[in-house]
Write a structure and sequence with these properties.
The chain is mainly alpha-helical. Helix content is about 65%, strand content about 0%. The protein has a domain of about 50 residues. It contains three helices and no strands. The longest helix is centred in the middle third of the chain and has 21 residues.
């Protein structure tokens, strides 16, 4: 599942390095912010022309929502 192998680990690191411990690991902050925005781009492409990750609302949408809804934690670090 994409959430388990990419979104969860990467965005968990964003939350750790950027939101909870800012300024302590600049390399990690930049790396995981860029990965987060890459993953947001993948999701954006996946959702082009449809409302859900799969054909209908499913556990995939439920699993990814808590991570994606926290996009503000990665803001301004991906540039």
């Amino acid at each position: 599942m994409w959430q388990i192998g990419g979104v969860g680990p990467a965005l968990g690191q964003v939350h750790n390095f950027i939101h909870f411990n800012p300024g302590k690991a600049p390399f990690a902050e930049e790396r995981f912010a860029k990965e987060a925005y890459r993953l947001y781009g993948v999701l954006d492409k996946c959702l082009t022309g449809r409302d859900f990750i799969a054909e209908t609302y499913s556990i995939a949408d439920m699993a990814i929502w808590p991570w994606i809804s926290q996009i503000r934690m990665a803001k301004d670090k991906s540039e």
